[in-house]
Automatic annotation (TrEMBL):
Name of the molecule in the record: Uncharacterized protein
PROSITE patterns: HTH_MYB, MYB_LIKE
Organism: Gossypium lobatum
Keyword presence, RNA-binding: no
Annotated compartments: Nucleus
Length: 92
């Protein structure tokens, strides 16, 4: 009878955190990006000590933590520009 190889219960790769970001993780990511810049995200994740993928760190920075992100209502001029461009270009 052939013998099956033993089944390992440990993962060879570190399990990445896939849940919601904590304030502490946000602060660590922001500090490391301030020092090293917004590039080489896999290295940024490792240097910050985050159990996250580089892609996750990049998306968190680009969509939530960047200092120049504008939040809130759009201005009347922005709304007018959107409407004029839609009238000109359509749904492209």
């Amino acid at each position: 009878m052939p013998v099956a190889p033993p089944i390992s219960t440990k993962c060879s790769k570190k399990e990445a955190n896939r849940g919601a970001w904590t304030d502490e993780e946000d602060q660590k990511l922001a500090q490391v990006v301030e020092i090293y810049g917004p590039k080489r995200w896999q290295a940024v994740a490792a240097k910050a000590g985050l159990n996250r993928s580089g892609k996750s760190c990049r998306l968190r920075w680009m969509n939530y933590l960047r200092p120049n992100i504008k939040r809130g209502d759009i201005s009347d001029q922005e709304e007018d520009l959107i409407l004029r461009l839609h009238k000109l270009l359509g749904n492209r």
